[in-house]
């Protein structure tokens, strides 16, 4: 690997300063002000922003993100439309796209990778594309300088973890629990365990997502890893109509908690 | 058998694979290993064969249809999967998977169901083997197949309603997969068709090959050879792959019949959903379209990857029929032969009936994958 991409560079900058990384997730095409939300969230202390491209059958997502997907699709959101909106956006930090493999497959892997790069998107997360199937996509993404972020789960055996970390770019996404995305009352112990297990085998930043829904939970799991991805809690604010300021206030709360504790 | 095995990465030609969240990958790997080991174990095979004979009632007969054959001007034979315990071919696969689950130390079966036949079969196997069972079913299907919902509950299964999307089979699979992601350490996902991530398409086919193996032998006895045409309905495609497997190495034409509103092979383009690459009804952006069929069992926008491969290589062809043609065929078989078919195999019969001129004088083996008891309520409304 030659040089670090924008995602890993941004995360390392935060870590080198002694902080913990914060990656909020925003559903693309949800509401008319979703791009304004990205801008406000960027200013509220995010390091990288994950933008969801809605898919009709999101099997890794719980009720909150499912509803966000349905609403966005119902309002006419499309992959080219969302990427087009991102192209005009300058938020001063890297964006990564999260979507399901069929969206990339349908457009064509090379075209999709090129479309991401062309829109200023630095990375991509495809939760239904595991290590063994990732080859053709990762090649296309590498060719366009797009960082492919892979996931590791609580069920991933020890011998498999280094293989995932080796192929992952930007950061390694530790899945915090057995289950789909969504806010839980308590942080699962598996969130800390996966962070610890990943840290033991990789130099890449390790972020934990899925089931990390409050600043307290973010602080707790960041004691073991390098930071968090916060999805459903953010999207729920969007669904509730909090608007860009309201969503940014939530993200600022996460930032503040992480800064105080670390 | 006569169909080729998938590659080590689960491919049938360009189709198949294992496109699941990382959380499920180790479970799929473990399943693949456990299945291969069990299938090679004579004790496992003997226990399964025993259940297929003494519990499910196999072998199922092949029935000649003199009256209908005369009416259509061809020779029609039915492979009678409708006579199996629980009323369809689904039991063949479920008994195999339930025994495998037990062997793997899992005591909770998870399943999706469309028409309810796979759900009933899974609930039945769970009752037989003393396992817990949870079945996901789309809300629309819960309403149009309420008899099967009652049967599943009677058998001790928990039936959960999938309220998302089209509220049919596709959404029931989404919910079952979400449950599996959360409970993968204790649950066994008992998938009902030749779809999903590797090894499911191959494993379910293997459990359904009993249909083709029996039918080949029975045709030899009845016809002294093989039929000219072997046809079956296709949703995910398990009953079709089961009967095709017995004739893939012969000259018999293999024909899969899809509903016009769910013709993944006929109208789809390659895509990836529910764990494998296959033909898929989707829009220009990759959003999966909602199928629309009178038959809850075939109301699915995708198809098993091996069918996509058989279509791409030309070994099988895939036709489609309309709901109206199916309603006609449903009544025709009831009236002429005293056999009320399920709406799913009525699709295959609708194709035979429509193509009677092209099929004139030929011998056609049709997989009658299930009986129509579950559909009489819906048909009463449609025909009144």
Explained architecture:
The complex is a heterodimer of chains A (262) and B (384). Chain A has 262 residues and is an alpha/beta fold. Chain A has one domain (6-257): Aldolase class I (TIM Barrel), CATH 3.20.20.70. Chain A has helices spanning 6-16, 34-43, 63-74, 79-87, 101-107, 109-118, 135-143, 161-167, 189-199, 215-222, 232-239, 243-261; strands at residues 21-27, 49-52, 95-98, 121-125, 147-149, 151-152, 172-175, 206-209, 227-230. Chain A has a nine-stranded parallel β-sheet. Chain B has 384 residues and is of the alpha/beta class. Chain B has helices at 25-39, 42-54, 66-72, 90-103, 117-129, 139-144, 146-154, 169-183, 200-223, 238-244, 264-267, 305-313, 323-337, 343-354, 376-383, and strands at residues 11-12, 15-19, 62-64, 75-80, 108-113, 132-138, 158-162, 187-189, 229-233, 253-259, 269-273, 275-280, 316-321, 363-368. Chain B has a six-stranded mixed β-sheet, sandwiched between helices. In chain B, strands 1-2-12-11 form a four-stranded antiparallel β-sheet. A four-stranded parallel β-sheet of chain B has the order 7-6-5-8, sandwiched between helices. In chain B, helix 4 crosses helix 9 (200-223). The longest helix of chain B has 24 residues, at 200-223. Chain B is globular, with a radius of gyration of 19 Å. The model of chain B has no long low-confidence stretch (mean pLDDT 96). Classes of the chains: A alpha/beta (262), B alpha/beta (384). Chain A binds chain B through residues 55-60, 62, 66, 70, 73, 78-80, 101-107, 127-133, 150-157, 160, 164, 175, 178-180, and chain B through 9, 17-27, 164-165, 170, 174, 177-178, 181-185, 269-275, 277, 280, 282, 284-288.
